[in-house]
Give the backbone structure.
Amino acid sequence: MASLCGRLAVNAVRRNVSNTIFRAYASNKVTLGDPLEHATGLEKRELLAKAAGNPNPFDLRVIKQGPGTRERPTEIPSAFDARIVGCICEEEAAYVNWMWLYKGQPKRCECGHWYTLVHKAPV
């Protein structure tokens, strides 16, 4: 019986302490300020690019396929000599066909679309 009373007392104290701490934080209305002030590294570069008007700073959006022929391949921008590209060959496909593109070497996907890498200056 004594251990049960002891556990009840400890639980009551725990509950009151956590509620008191929560009320102290809620009454002070602590704010962290602008996220740009706290960001570092890639996150900061992304926030700065978005603030400058570039909604796609890392070129991660889906690129609409062009004609995709050997004479007029779909152009994929990159600041590097190689880039990995995914092709959804069929509209109902449940997988993505991934391939490496290299500068100056057009590449054909299994579905027949052609891709080529074009230089884009880094942001």
